[in-house]
Each structure stands twice: as C-alpha cells, then as structure tokens.
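Whiteboard transcription, Tuesday session. T.W. wrote the structure tokens on the left side:
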C-alpha cells in the first residue's frame, strides 16, 4: 500500500500518521490541545504523543526511537511505530516495503518541526513538587573525594524546575531552593498543601562498597522489595529519626503499619509505579551506568503524599567514578532531559487514562 509522502531525517524514516492509519482501517482521533493521537483498532487502543518517543499500546509502552514530527501541518511518525506498535495493536506484522514502493527522500532536519524548545501544554499535571533530598546539616552520602549528595540533588532539582518553567505551563514548587534542612514530613506536607499532582524526590545513593553502581527508582510500600531497599530506606529515614522528626523503624510492625497504612492509597500506588517505570526507562537510555530497576520501600519522605510520589537515586556517591560523573554538567543535563521526557510521557498517559 503506497503511503504517499514519506520522508527521512538522518537515519529515521517518517510516515504520515493519520492518513496511513485510516487507510489501514484504524480509527484515529487527534487532540490538538494535547497534541496526542488516539488510535482504535476493533476493541484495542493505542496512543501517540507528539512529546514522546514512546507509544502506548493496550497499556504497554513501546519505544519508537524518535519522537513524531510535524511537516506542513501534518503529524509524521517514525517507521518504528508500524514495525513495533502496529503488530501489538492489530496482530499483523508490517514492514516499510509493504507500505511504500519507493525509498523516501532525505529532507533537511530544519524543514521538519519537532517540539524541542516549544512551550508544552501539560494535560493532567498542573502542579509538580520537586524535592532535593537532604540539605543543611544533613549532607546525605559523601563521595571519597568529599562531594556531598545534597549538592547534586539541589543542582538537578533546580535544572529540572528551570526546564519545566521555561517549556511547560505547569506550576513548579521546590521543597528547598538552597542549602536548607527540611524535615521529611514537611516535604510531603508542602505537596499536600499546594494540591500538587506529582511529588518527585531526587537523591544519590551510598554504599559500603566503592564498586556499587547504578540508578534506581522507588515508590512507597509497607514492605521493601529486597533487603537492599530496606537498608536504603532506613538510611534515608535515619537523619529524621535521629532528630525526632519521623518515627523509628524499631517500632513494632503493627505501629509501622498504623503510621504508613492510612497514607497509602491504592490509586496513588498504581500511578506511582507507572511514573517510576517511565522514569526508569528514560534514565536507562540516558545513563551509562547499571539500571537497578524499579523498587518499593517505606520511605518516610513519600509517606503521606496524597498524589503519585517517587524517589529517584541517580547514582552512587560512594563510587568515586560515578560521583564524579554526577557532578559533570553534561551528565546532569542528560539526567534532567530524561526526567523531563519521562514526566511528559506520564502526563500524556495519565490524560489518556482519565
């Protein structure tokens, strides 16, 4: 089936989305305000966001390798959508050879409009609280060279806040803007008072071994995913326990459940897990360190949040090479770009699910 206009930008082939999908028998609905295309095939649904290089097919995330682009007012999608997402949606494989009789012409990238630098209209996230872990008299983890976790946490939060302020219409609230100690309960209390839609706490890890490496993303649970997650939660909660600002894990199991049980809402846990998976997937593309996955643990900084909430450990301060990386401006930019893209994807997913 010839598709009409197909274009190549670099190594990526782009195809006209709506006309081709409709020719293939799918029903499409374009949301102009959110720049989101919803595709229906029989009783199955897929969604494409002009903000994301992922498609959502029946609740599953499918990587496309590139974001959709606009040319002459039309939405063009990467060929990968038809090669990867279309078979999941329809059960039918598809190749470019079946779609076009001729190779696509190469066009200059400046002739194609993408969304980099545009002001994004977020569909479901109106207020986001960003939390830089530790601060003040609590330095967090230290590197062998003396770098402090609290400093990299604050640097990343400031850059992410600046990116959202410049490029979206969301209101961004920081739990701390400088080297100030904020008790853990006050961090989520801020998010609750502001009626935030999202709470993201940024940290860097520490371990006894200098060889420990990698990033990981956590959401709240009464039970830890594993012993390592339990130890990390105890460590992150430790400064508050010492100051009397948070309850101790040495209370009985029943007391702990009483403390946290009322704070956990099933719908927020489900949404937190979805957000954590999106963040982990984007960081995996951006970071050249181990992906330690998505985990659960009873972090007090997440307890009480009346919205989806996650804690990100971006790397290990105890690993001298990794700590040095975390303080490099280019690496910090990669982390911020990954977090920004993941949150935009989550926003589109959440809006589609509402």
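and on the right, the sequence the group agreed on:
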């Amino acid at each position: 089936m010839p598709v009409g206009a197909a274009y190549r930008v670099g190594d990526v082939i782009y195809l006209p989305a709506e006309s081709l999908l409709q020719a293939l028998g799918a029903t499409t609905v374009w949301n102009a305000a959110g720049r989101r295309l919803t595709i229906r095939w029989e009783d199955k649904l897929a969604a494409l966001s002009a903000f994301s290089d992922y498609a959502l097919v029946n609740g599953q995330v499918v990587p496309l390798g590139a974001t959709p682009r606009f040319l002459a007012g039309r939405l063009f999608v990467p060929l990968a959508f038809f090669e990867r997402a279309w078979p999941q949606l329809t059960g039918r494989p598809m190749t470019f050879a079946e779609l076009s009789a001729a190779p696509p012409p190469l066009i200059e990238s400046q002739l194609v409009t993408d969304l980099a630098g545009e002001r994004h209209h977020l569909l479901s996230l109106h207020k986001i609280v960003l939390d830089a872990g530790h601060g003040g008299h609590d330095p967090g983890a230290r590197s062998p060279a003396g770098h402090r976790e609290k400093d990299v946490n604050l640097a990343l939060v400031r850059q992410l806040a600046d990116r959202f302020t410049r490029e979206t219409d969301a209101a961004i609230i920081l739990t701390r803007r400088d080297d100030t100690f904020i008790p853990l309960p006050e961090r989520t209390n801020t998010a609750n008072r502001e009626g935030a839609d999202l709470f993201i706490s940024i940290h860097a890890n520490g371990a006894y071994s200098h060889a420990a490496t990698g990033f990981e993303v956590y959401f709240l649970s009464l039970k830890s995913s594993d012993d390592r997650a339990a130890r990390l939660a105890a460590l992150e909660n430790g400064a508050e326990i010492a100051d009397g600002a948070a309850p101790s894990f040495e209370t009985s199991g029943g007391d702990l459940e009483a403390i946290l049980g009322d704070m956990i809402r099933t719908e927020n846990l489900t949404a937190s897990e979805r957000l954590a998976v999106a963040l982990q997937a984007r960081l995996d593309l951006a970071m050249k360190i181990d992906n330690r996955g998505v985990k659960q643990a009873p972090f007090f900084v997440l307890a009480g949040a009346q919205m989806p909430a996650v804690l990100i450990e971006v790397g290990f301060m105890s690993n001298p090479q990794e700590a040095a990386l975390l303080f490099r401006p280019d690496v910090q930019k990669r982390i911020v770009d990954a977090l920004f893209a993941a949150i935009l994807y989550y926003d589109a997913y959440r809006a589609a699910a509402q």
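Someone added at the bottom: The longest helix spans residues 329-353.
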